[in-house]
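Retro notes (design track)

What went well: tokenization of the new backbones is finally stable.
What didn't: we kept losing track of which sequence belonged to which structure.
Fix going forward: every design gets posted as structure first, then sequence, in one message. First example under the new rule, 454 residues:
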């Protein structure tokens, strides 16, 4: 997977060497000689990944990383800090600043390329979700989170055949989280079916194939979105690279430092919860696009899409598509007499009775205002008429009670059915509307059928 990469390094020789290596791997590369220039370039043309030298004059790598992560337009860009000074303090400060990885110079090319592939996949996923969420937010259908997403209290699955090491990991994690230890891979897969925020796997385990477990978690329906932190032996480059290719999100070299463990875990859980938030926001926006918020029925947009699909799939000689158009009689009187709040209660109650009166294959929708539509696939006109009468009886024969108010309600129903292979959804709706108008003109509280032409 290719990506746009911004290299930030004050040493021209280092920039050129790294640029040549990445260009040879078909990455699109831009360079900057200092932190200020990097921020300007990133703001003008946001890259997919930033490789950021730690020690630079002016703004150092820590400062640049913090500024990037504080910018709403740039905070989703993965940042890899590069340094010749691989101290524990520097690594911890880098992760606290928001860095996604910390690589030591001289850089191991194979590790770098594997890490870039992993980060590029992550960036594509986060960007797609973020674009959907931003579009929904602009339309006013998705709330933004009220506060910063928490990175504590996570349910963490620790998988290791070394019970002593697993317990040491668990003890360090239990300061902020809720770890669960599994030494058997099959039990680990069972535990992963429940909600987990992170899996910590010792890929150097000798008692089972930890890489196979990684692959199984990545393909599992319940676990594929959970991040994986692999505990690795840095000398076993083959296993390390294979773990990254299989979808491991981060690496923890052995022997691990408890502070580095906590910082990496915090970053992974925060990212996972942000991705979960984006998925929930996207799902909510899709739902709001097809659901009427007052009644909970599908809305007109969804109904038209389903009706179009039914007509396209209809085979010659198949049973027709029938449609009911249901209108609450004299609904203006309800609003004028009892107010719009009780009027909304009436609409909700009518929707409940309507949905309870149709068949499982039927699609009840709110068409708009006090009008409802029921789409009835593969239904003859006579069957549609019986359902229409059932709806009218369910609504009109019972007074609707809202609070301490009793509100008499009736409905009129127009019924139509598709009329041959050349018929269209718009014509079906028009004929049902004409039948509804006839029912209203004839005194309301009745069902009228639009008889198809012979």
């Amino acid at each position: 997977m290719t990506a746009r990469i911004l290299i930030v390094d004050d040493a021209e020789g280092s920039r050129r060497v790294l640029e040549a290596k990445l260009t040879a791997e078909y990455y699109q590369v831009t360079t900057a000689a200092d932190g200020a220039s990097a921020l300007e370039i990133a703001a003008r043309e946001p890259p997919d990944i930033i490789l950021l030298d730690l020690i630079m004059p002016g703004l150092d790598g820590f400062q640049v990383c913090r500024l990037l992560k504080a910018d709403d337009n740039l905070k989703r860009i993965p940042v890899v800090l590069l340094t010749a000074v691989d101290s524990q303090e520097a690594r911890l400060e880098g992760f606290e600043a928001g860095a996604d990885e910390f690589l030591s110079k001289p850089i191991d090319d194979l590790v770098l390329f594997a890490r870039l592939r992993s980060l590029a996949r992550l960036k594509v996923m986060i960007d797609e979700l973020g674009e959907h969420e931003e579009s929904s937010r602009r339309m006013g259908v998705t709330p933004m989170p009220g506060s910063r997403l928490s990175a504590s209290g996570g349910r963490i699955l620790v998988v290791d055949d070394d019970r002593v090491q697993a317990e040491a990991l668990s003890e360090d994690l239990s300061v902020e989280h809720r770890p669960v230890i599994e030494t058997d891979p099959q039990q680990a897969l069972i535990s992963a079916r429940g909600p987990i925020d992170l899996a910590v796997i010792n890929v150097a385990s000798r008692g089972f194939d930890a890489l196979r477990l990684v692959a199984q978690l990545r393909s599992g329906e319940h676990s594929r979105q959970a991040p994986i932190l692999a505990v690795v032996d840095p000398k076993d480059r083959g296993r390390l690279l294979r773990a990254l290719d299989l979808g491991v999100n981060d690496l923890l070299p052995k022997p691990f430092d408890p502070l580095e463990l906590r910082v990496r875990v915090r970053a992974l859980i925060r990212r996972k919860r942000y991705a979960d938030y984006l998925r929930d926001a996207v799902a909510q926006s899709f739902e709001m696009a097809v659901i009427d918020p007052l009644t909970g029925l599908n809305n007109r947009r969804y109904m038209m899409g389903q009706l179009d699909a039914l007509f396209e799939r209809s085979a010659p000689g198949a049973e027709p598509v029938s449609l009911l158009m249901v209108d609450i009689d004299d609904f203006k009187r309800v609003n004028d007499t009892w107010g719009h709040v009780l009027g909304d209660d009436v609409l909700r109650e009518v929707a409940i009775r309507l949905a309870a009166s149709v068949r499982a294959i039927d699609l009840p929708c709110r068409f708009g205002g006090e009008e409802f539509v029921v789409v009835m696939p593969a239904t003859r006109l006579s069957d549609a008429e019986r359902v229409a009468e059932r709806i009218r009886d369910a609504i009109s024969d019972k007074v609707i009670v809202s609070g301490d108010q009793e509100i008499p309600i009736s409905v009129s129903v127009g019924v139509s059915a598709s009329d041959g292979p050349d018929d269209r959804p718009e014509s079906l709706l028009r004929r049902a509307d004409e039948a509804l108008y006839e029912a209203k003109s004839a005194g309301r509280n009745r069902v009228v059928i639009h008889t198809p032409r012979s």
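Added context from the reviewer: The first strand starts at residue 4 and ends at 8.
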